[in-house]
Amino acid sequence: MIVQNAKLKQYGKMAQVKVLFVCLGNICRSPLAEGIFRHKIEQKGMASRFVVDSCGTAAYHVGEHPDDRSVANARKNGVEYDHLGRQLKEQDFYRFDYILAMDEYNLADIHRLQPADAKAQVMMMRAFDPMDENANVPDPYYGGEDGFQLVFEILERSTEHLLARLMKDHSLS
Length: 173
Ligand code: 4NP
Prior knowledge:
The protein is α/β, with parallel strands linked by helices.
């Protein structure tokens, strides 16, 4: 009887799709991508079907909240989010199904750390942006408000198309 219950529990649990967004510092682009993606899956009632996280290739901002300018811009665009910075680690390649790099430098750093038997598929975030496939998500850190708005719009489009693709590929609705 106990064994049967345990089996039911195991089979009853739906598989989750695990997505990790990666940039350099994990205070501007990747936590915003995570925040927008999370906002979208919550709006669709799909949050329980996903595990979503973000991290940086560098350790400069470990333990820090996202950049205030990024948070303020997202709020203006209707998205609230928070995150604590962390660095990419080897375990992430086994835990996540998809790792999305914000730019080509992040991609190269990710590939350097990627174990040969990694589970995760590593891709560029803008591979899902119909307006500019395979371009970089520009780093807004040293620029002004325009840069943060541009990054928001790029990530809004890219995460929308990423989500549509994942829902299709994983038969989620
Ligand atoms: P992010 O932006 O990679 O989008 O989080 C940056 C944040 C911090 C630094 C560089 C980029 N930094 O040099 O400290």
